[in-house]
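Posting this for the archive.
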Amino acid sequence: MSSILTNNSAMVALQTLKAVNNSLQGVQSQISTGKAVGSAKDNSAVWAISKVMESDVKGFKGIQESLSLGESTVAVARNAAETVTDLLTDIKSKIVSAQEENVDREKIQSDIAALRGQIGSVVNAAQFNGLNLVTGTEDVNILSSLDRTGNGEVTAANIQVARQDLSTGSGTFGTGDSLAGNITSSAATIDSTNAVNDLELTMAGTTNEALTLTVNGTTFTQSFDTDAATTIDALRGQINQAGLTGIAAAGTGATLELRNTNSFAEFDVSWNSGATNTIAAVNNGDTSENVGATAGAGAATLVYRAEEVELSTTAKVNEGDGYRINVNGGAYEYVAGKGETMEDVARGLKTAIDSGGEIGVTTSVAQDDATGAWKVLVDYDGSDAGAGATMTLTDAGQAGGEASGGLFGLDNIDVTTNEGANSALANIETLIQNSIDSAANFGSVQGRIETQSDFVGKLVDSLKSGIGTLVDADMEAASARLQALQVQQQLATQSLSIANQAPQNILSLFR
């Protein structure tokens, strides 16, 4: 049925033309913008995902800037620590030169002072944009990543840079909880006569058997002569005539008293008294060396003259923990920094005592082979006329202080005396090791920052690529579709024109 009121063909052709025009408009938009999803109406889900990823890209670009700033700051600190290490090595060479007595120690001390001043200049100048990582103890965080969870929560991740304090400050002793239980002196006095740590050997028996005694590898053999007292007396003479450094034999009757006047060197002692003669050995003041009376072979240790200040093997060292050793009324303190151990405390206390200039007092640091405890060994040779044969020795500990600098003790190095030159040689090794550790820590962190920066750069590229995959238009497909739609548009236009001519054909029915 034909109608002049309703042209179904024209309506179909018109709808087709509109659909083609809409599709053509979409393709032209893709070609002009380069995006298949340019707004939320194109594909709301894909558009939302792409916008989240775009925000992450901008965030990671900011992180790259943060990492670049942090890397530069750490690089400055590392260079400073390496320079300080070189300067400390130069100071060590001066200290070694000062070990000779026929050198001008005053001039050497002047050179050391100049190098010390240069170290201070390097430490103070080692800042980048106002941030100095070689002074203070507070850690610095560098923004390194944004971590997004599956539920959309975003958290910031940081690379923590531990400051490495290379200042020379002595710190401030705290007023917090007592730490006295973590530090213990072996005696209340330092005895220059070594009356405490002598090793006594008492021989009993009348059998005609030789007595063999070995002191630090030197063996003495004494045949049995009349009785135990006569035999021991002859052995006593052998030992004294041997001239062992710091070893003297004394005692009366059948008791041989071995004295070790070496400050920090201990010696192994062994004996063989035959099958029936017995030796009772006791190390005065140290019951652990009391081996009682034994027949045949035996062994003990002839300990050093110095007294021990032992530090705990179980206590944790916190920043601000201060420990003190009082020698002859002088208080010598060290306040631990962040991440330090009892070894650091022991070396710091040694440095503090050495800086005090106590007459006749020398120190050393040792670790107990059996327990692992770190000890500060304090010796007195009796040369202080005011102190006499002994000096007082006490200890204390307190939390809540301000940490000593990593180069604590550098300001007090003095090689103008024999004692100062000797102590400086040991203490400079500790300072060099501290600066080496600092440079190594900064180098490790700098490497980590570089790695993270490279990763973030690659991550940004991957995110951009992912966003492009989601929203970018396929230009080859768009070009082909544009041509197809243009043909469809022409055909639809022609179809509409033909459909619009249909009512004209009805006129022929009325001719």
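The first strand starts at residue 127 and ends at 128. The mean pLDDT is 87.
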